[in-house]
């Protein structure tokens, strides 16, 4: 991972001085993921991250023992009566009693598979993958505030609690990365108005991940993003009176849209 990161940094470092934090940020992310596992395995003696790992491991076992059942369980919504399919290997698995945790375990499955069912290897892969989206958020803010790249690096890449809880086999790793990717896509698609498939994809996919795992995070993001968009648009209006008239109207429309979406998704 560090070799790939070094090649990526070498390719972009001459364009942006902020890239000097790329590898230190990745190392912090990996260390945070491993430390999370150490705390849960050796201090708590178990917990969420262990359960996610065991559930993802049960998916791996099911893939090799009964592939048809695996495809049914992984890509469809299983019934409670079919729980025996995930218990063939004897490992604990989240089931339909916690759909958010079950979805998170599905997300971790390919990393546990590629890591050969090693917690440390899977953690390194997950931390590296999630770091991609955290870095994208950092690039958004350094684009807006290039002179603040040092302060932004500390606040986005190196806050200890964020590094610890947002790096390993936890739902927080997925949702934090999705939130970062959402802001990245929102910025380029709506604020900068680069209407590309890549930017639209970022908004759509990250929103889906948030809805499937922690929907309230998306609705915490929406008001701030709408306010960001509105203030950006209004800043281009030269007439002061027009600004005063437009701003409240746009904010009200935005609030109504957010409330309608939340109501349709059962959040109200």
Mean pLDDT: 87
Q: Given the helix and strand composition, which structural class is it?
A: mainly alpha
Roughly how many Å is the radius of gyration?
A: 21 Å
One letter per element, helices H and strands E, the order comes to: HHHHHHHHHHHH
Distance between the termini: 43 Å
How would you explain this protein's 3D organization?
- The protein starts with a helix and ends with a helix.
- 75% of the residues lie in helices and 0% in strands.
- The chain has 12 helices and no strands.
- The mean pLDDT is 87.
- It has helices at residues 2-12, 22-44, 48-65, 67-75, 99-114, 119-144, 149-157, 160-165, 171-191, 197-213, 215-235, 240-264.
- 33% of the residues are buried.
- It is mainly alpha-helical and 268 residues long.
- The chain folds into 2 domains: 2-213, no CATH class; 220-264.
Summarize the model shown:
By secondary structure, this protein is mainly alpha-helical. It is 75% helix and 0% strand. The protein folds into two domains: 2-213, no CATH class; 220-264.
What's the structural blueprint in terms of helices and strands?
Blueprint lengths: L1 H11 L9 H23 L3 H18 L1 H9 L23 H16 L4 H26 L4 H9 L2 H6 L5 H21 L5 H17 L1 H21 L4 H25 L4
Helix pairs in contact: 1-2, 2-6, 3-4, 3-5, 5-6, 6-7, 6-9, 9-10, 9-11, 10-11, 11-12
Give me some keywords for this one.
mainly alpha, 2 domains, 12 helices, 75% helix, globular
